[in-house]
């Protein structure tokens, strides 16, 4: 019993010795954004963005960038560390930017590093840039003093309203799942502002094409339940209609009969007309006409988008994965039939409020 009593304080002290020392923010370099550009085959340029708050009561944050070349993420990070006056910490990394050249060559070697790092959260954003990733991180944008946070905020608010949800967690699921392909935001500089220009489509880990921004909301409606955002369409002659999404969801039905696959989509969309041109929406007949026009437009645009996926032989909606979940998936047959997969779409629009007193 005496031996046990003596051992308790020894064990307790040993455990205390295992607790990591707290890190003081002023003593470390917190990286919030990282970008990768292609220098030449199998060699890359990495750029890390962070902010530094100098001493003083009203001191403004100053952006700091570190740049290094290398063949791997680890090598570039080590070389950045050699350039930094403080230890580099990536635990608060919020976004990874791949130039289009890097994305076309394949991003999985980069993703593999972040996937294995326990300090990296699965909610970090992944994006493809039309411009060099270094230019995106090193630009002084008009709307923010903290460049990295500004980039993250632009992506976040677009995902809230227009783009489907996507981050490292989603990418990993889509990449490793059978019958799925990844996607992520596509960005570009517009003067001294950052612009989301669409959704980058991947075949495996390689970028192949982009959904234009104007079609991104159709993709969002098809991909997930949504409760924000606007859908706009031309209506009759010079009039246009804008509908605010209150709630929408899409159900897929994948069938296989006599060895042939087919897919049916049912889109349910409840919305409020926020702009109607000169149309009188106090007349319920006009509301019904608007609903029918919206149903036709959304169905047509959704079918065009799905046809694009089939032509590119990519499956960002995970139709193959849904066939697998249903137990009717045969990889060889699915991939053979997918480019010509019969697809039907039924859209049900309900304008629950016009925004005009009736």
Number of strands: 13
Number of helical elements: 11
Helix content: 25-40%
Structural class: alpha/beta
**Topology order in helix (H) and strand (E) letters:** HEEEHEEHHEHHHEEEHEEEHHHE
Beta percentage is 25-35%
C-alpha end-to-end distance: 84 Å
Which ranges are low-confidence, i.e. pLDDT below 50, for 5 or more consecutive residues?
Answer: none
Number of domains: 2
Indicate the overall shape. globular
> What is the mean pLDDT?
89
The largest pleated sheet is described as:
9 strands, mixed
Report Rg.
25 Å
What this model shows, in words?
This protein has 11 helices and 13 strands. It is of the alpha/beta class and 358 residues long. It has 2 domains: 25-214; 225-358, Nutrient germinant receptor protein C, domain 3 (GMP Synthetase, Chain A, domain 3). The strands form 2 sheets. Strands 1, 2, 3, 4, 5, 6, 7, 8 and 9 form a 9-stranded mixed beta sheet that branches. The radius of gyration is 25 Å and the shape is globular. The mean pLDDT is 89.
Set out the fold topology.
Blueprint: H1 2-18, E1 29-40, E2 43-52, E3 62-70, H2 73-83, E4 88-89, E5 95-99, H3 100-105, H4 108-116, E6 125-129, H5 133-138, H6 147-161, H7 168-176, E7 183-190, E8 193-203, E9 206-212, H8 213-223, E10 230-235, E11 239-257, E12 260-275, H9 284-312, H10 319-325, H11 331-337, E13 343-353
Parallel strand pairs: 1-4, 1-5, 5-6, 6-7, 12-13
Antiparallel strand pairs: 1-2, 2-3, 7-8, 8-9, 10-11, 11-12
Helix pairs in contact: 8-9
